[in-house]
Structure formats: C-alpha cells, structure tokens
Design goal:
Structural class: alpha+beta
Number of strands: 8
CATH class of the largest domain: Mainly Alpha
CATH architecture of the largest domain: Orthogonal Bundle
Shape: elongated
Strand content: 15-25%
Number of domains: 3
Helix content: 40-55%
Strand order of the largest sheet: 4-3-2-1-5
C-alpha cells in the first residue's frame, strides 16, 4: 500500500480537508521563502549598482530598491491569495482574471485605499518628491525617510520614533534636503564690549571654521551688526552648506565664538540667543 493510500485510510472522510490545509500551508511557506530570496536578490543587485563607476545617486538607489522589493512582495501575496481562494473553491481563477483582471480583484475586495496608496507612491517616485535618506516634514511629522514602500513611507524622527504613513494620506511635503542650506548664527554682544574687537574675533572664527569644516559651499562671513536690542547688540555670521550639514556648522561656530570671546575678554549679551 502506498503511503498516500495509508494516510487516506487513516483519515477517512477527513483526508481531503486535511490535504487542502497542508497544501495551503505549503503554498504559504513557499511564498515566504520566495519573498525572502527575491528581496535579498533585489537588494543585492542594487547594492552592486553602488560600486559601479557610472551610477545614480545612492539615495535614489535605496529608494528604488525598497520600492521594487515592496512591488515584488505584494505581487507574490496577490498570486498566493488568488491561488488559495481557487483551491478552497471560493473563486474561479480563470473566469475572474478574464472578467476583471488583478486590479479588479483588488477593488472587488474593497481595497480602494490600497489602490490610492499605490498610485500616490508611484507619483512620489516619478516626481522625485523625496528619496530614502531625505529629511522631510509631512504635515506635523518630521524625520528621515528610512524606507519607501509601494503603499507606505517610513519616517524616523529625531527621537527614534518610526512614523508609518500611507502614501495616499500624504498631502503636503516639505523636503529639507533640496538645495543649499543657510547657516545663520546670531551673536549677542554686550554694549560694554569693544564692537570692533568683537567683529575681528568673529572674522577670525569664520576663517578657522572654514578650514576645519569641508561642508561649506560659501565660507562663513560676518554680516555685521543686525540689531540693537535692549540688553545687547547682535552680530550675525552667515554661510551656506550642503543639506543636513548646517546644524553641525552652526554648533561649531557657536562653540568657537564662546571660546574666542572668553580669550579676548569680550562679554556676550543674552547667551540664550547664542546657545540654542
């Protein structure tokens, strides 16, 4: 007696349902393996692209990688779902695909929001609104784009929280990584201090920080006294850097200003304006 016949004799009338469950479990396991292997190969292919001499921007590569992995995963899920439904006997695969196609199946399941998220995701990519690694603000949520999938965008904020936002709900985006960034440092100088000496000291700091920091597109320079307040005057330093490098530059300028002013015996005014 064959092994299958032996199992059939043991299970009796439960043989067919049990075998159906086993088949469904096998399909799911195979789908998981296919998704894992496919995702790995896609990521490996894009990682290899980074090492080529003529390559596109690294952040765009990461964006396309996560997006393609997402498309591949959803494709496998849809095929598996249709296959399982057909095996259970809920739907007839051939007639359903002929009548409406895969898009009709998804809408038939009441997933209009899914379609909206997917379409919005494609437009975000096509219009190059943002890519993985960009610092953006969506509504009142700010952070770095960690992943961009077919349906959602994953945004990691400065506290480490992960915002998962459906692409269809994204209405307004502020991208902080497009174009050069302004560096503005206001130095509160007490009225009792020598303004000419303060100006010279600030210029010395600008020269020093421009040599130590490579991210400047326009070297720092002292703009001059921009405000005469009740408690102090304000001396302003301006510069321009690459995106995401402006904060480090501002911190370094403030630190050096404090050190140099202390060495020169110059009094700062309201220090809350200097240390932010």
């Amino acid at each position: 007696m064959k092994f299958t016949d032996h199992i059939k004799s043991l299970l009796g009338e439960f043989f067919s349902p049990v075998m159906l469950v086993v088949k469904i479990i096998c399909i799911i396991i195979i789908a998981i393996i296919v998704v894992k292997i496919g995702s790995y190969l896609i990521k490996k292919l894009f990682q290899k692209q980074k090492s080529l001499k003529y390559r596109i921007d690294t952040r765009k590569i990461d964006t396309l990688s996560t997006l393609l992995v997402s498309i591949f995963r959803y494709t496998v899920y849809i095929i598996v779902g249709i296959t399982i439904l057909a095996d259970v006997g809920i739907v007839n695969t051939g007639s359903m695909l002929a009548a409406a196609g895969i898009g009709g199946i998804v809408i038939g399941f009441g997933s209009q929001n899914l379609i909206k998220d997917i379409v919005s995701g494609f437009f975000i990519v096509l219009e190059n609104q943002y890519v993985v690694g960009d610092l953006i603000t969506i509504e009142n949520m700010s952070g770095t784009v960690e992943e961009m999938e077919l349906r959602v965008t994953k945004l990691r904020n400065f506290n480490g929280d992960l915002h998962i936002i459906p692409n269809g709900e994204i209405k307004k985006i502020t991208n902080h990584c497009r174009g050069n960034k302004a560096v503005i440092v206001d130095i509160p100088v007490a009225y009792s201090a020598d303004v000419n000496k303060a100006f010279e000291t600030a210029c010395k700091v600008c020269t020093r920080v421009s040599k130590d920091h490579e991210g400047f597109l326009e070297p720092p320079k002292v703009l001059g006294v921009t405000e005469l307040g009740k408690e102090n005057m304000t001396l302003r330093i301006i510069a321009r850097t690459n995106p995401n490098e402006q904060w480090e530059a501002e911190r370094e300028i403030r630190k050096l200003i404090k050190d140099e002013f202390d060495k020169q015996g110059l009094s700062l005014g309201n220090k809350d304006k200097l240390i932010r």
